[in-house]
Structure formats: structure tokens, C-alpha cells
């Protein structure tokens, strides 16, 4: 019983699930996009959007739900070894779901103001901390290109210095050291193309 309490409140809670106990876990579903798959063309094609959303993101959700179901079964049986083993799958697939859910909200069609350099307070902060918007774009692209495999480039506000920072996380790890402003998905498809996107402020 003590193990059940620790796992559900701390481990699952830290993943943003918000559960007080492990039994009766809800299943997660693919979130709808706030725009059509064609809305971001020509920056991102319909085919890439569908593949990324319906296949790539959905796979994380499917595996996340599966891992959570297995966790519930393992905890019911008191199988501590299985509980520990499942943490990696929960972190990876849960992170993939959470990060992509944030990512989709970063993208805005040009018809709604997307694709324009940021203005106001964010524009001023970018100029102050990076020198210019162009310099920030170069840094984001350089950090993304340096990632091996897939991962994320984050623009955030450092919690201690309160300055804008660009940070990276590998695979599906979520940024925790800074308050998130923007996230850029870096992935290499079968043809090994690097996809980097700056689409909105």
C-alpha cells in the first residue's frame, strides 16, 4: 500500500497526470489541432502534419496508455520489479505526449499572424538577451542541429536569472529548469532530414 501511494502521487504526479492513486487511470487521447493540416503550408506540408500528428504523436499516446495499464496491473500484484521497469516507458511516452501537446499550440497559420517576428515585451527581451531575432534563430537552429537523433529545443525564461535562454533536451524529456515560452520539435525522418520550425511568437 505504501508503494502504491508513492508511485501514484510522486512518480505519476510529476508527469502531469494529477492522480491521487493508480487505480482507475484514465486513458489519453490525441488532442485536436486548432487549425487544419493544410493551414501551415508552405512552411509545413499536409503530409508532414498528418504524419507527425496522427502517427508520431499518436504512437506516444498509445504506448503511454499501455504502460500505465501495465503499471496498474503490476501495482495490483505488488510486482515492484515491473513497477520500476515501467518508469522508463512512462517517462518517454508520457513526455512525448506532453511535449507534442505544447508544440502544436506554438504553431499559428500566417493568416492568423504566424511567421512574423515577435513584437512587444518578447521582442524586446529577445533583442536584449540575444542581440536580435536573427541571432536567436541561428542559435535555435545550431542547438537543434547538434542534437543526436530526436529531441527538443526550448526558448524559456531561466527561473533564477529571469533571462531568456535556449536549452535542449534529448528524446522526450520536458524542460523543467526554465519557464517555457516556445518549443521546437527536432526529428529526423527516414531520409535523415532535420526539421526545424520557427513559426510563431
Q: Structural class, please?
A: mainly alpha
Major sheet, described briefly?
Answer: 3 strands, antiparallel
> Would you tell me which CATH topology of the domain at 112-187 applies?
minor pseudopilin epsh fold
Give the end-to-end Cα distance, rounded to a whole number of Å.
47 Å
Please report the total strand number as a whole number.
3
Level-2 CATH architecture of the domain at 112-187: 3-Layer(bab) Sandwich
- The count of helical stretches stands at 5
Task: Please bin the fraction of helical residues.
Answer: 40-55%
**CATH H-level homologous superfamily name of the domain at 112-187:** Iron/manganese superoxide dismutase, C-terminal domain
Q: Show unreliable segments.
A: 1-23, 189-201
Radius of gyration: 19 Å
Shape: globular
Major sheet: order of its strands?
Answer: 2-1-3
Instruction: Give the oligomeric state of the chains in this entry, treating copies of one chain as homo and distinct chains as hetero.
Output: single chain
Short descriptors:
mainly alpha, 48% helix, three-stranded antiparallel beta sheet, Mn/Fe_SOD_N, metal ion binding, transmembrane helix, Superoxide dismutase, metal-binding, Helix Hairpins, 5 helices
Amino acid at each position: 500500500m505504501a508503494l502504491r501511494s508513492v508511485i501514484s502521487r510522486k512518480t505519476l504526479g510529476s508527469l502531469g497526470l494529477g492522480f491521487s492513486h493508480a487505480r482507475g487511470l484514465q486513458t489519453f487521447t490525441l488532442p485536436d489541432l486548432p487549425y487544419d493540416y493544410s493551414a501551415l503550408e508552405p512552411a509545413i506540408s499536409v503530409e508532414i502534419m498528418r504524419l507527425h500528428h496522427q502517427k508520431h504523436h499518436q504512437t506516444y499516446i498509445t504506448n503511454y496508455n499501455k504502460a500505465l495499464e501495465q503499471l496498474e496491473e503490476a501495482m495490483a500484484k505488488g510486482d515492484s520489479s515491473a513497477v520500476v521497469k515501467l518508469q522508463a516507458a512512462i517517462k518517454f511516452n508520457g513526455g512525448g505526449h506532453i511535449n507534442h501537446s505544447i508544440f502544436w499550440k506554438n504553431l499559428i497559420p500566417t493568416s492568423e499572424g504566424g511567421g512574423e517576428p515577435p513584437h512587444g515585451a518578447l521582442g524586446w527581451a529577445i533583442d536584449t538577451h540575444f542581440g536580435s531575432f536573427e541571432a536567436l534563430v541561428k542559435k535555435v537552429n545550431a542547438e537543434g542541429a547538434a542534437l543526436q537523433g530526436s529531441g527538443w529545443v526550448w526558448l524559456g525564461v531561466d527561473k533564477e536569472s529571469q533571462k531568456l535562454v535556449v536549452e535542449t533536451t534529448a528524446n522526450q524529456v520536458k524542460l523543467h529548469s526554465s519557464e517555457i515560452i516556445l518549443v521546437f520539435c527536432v526529428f529526423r525522418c527516414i531520409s535523415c532530414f532535420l526539421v526545424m520550425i520557427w513559426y510563431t511568437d
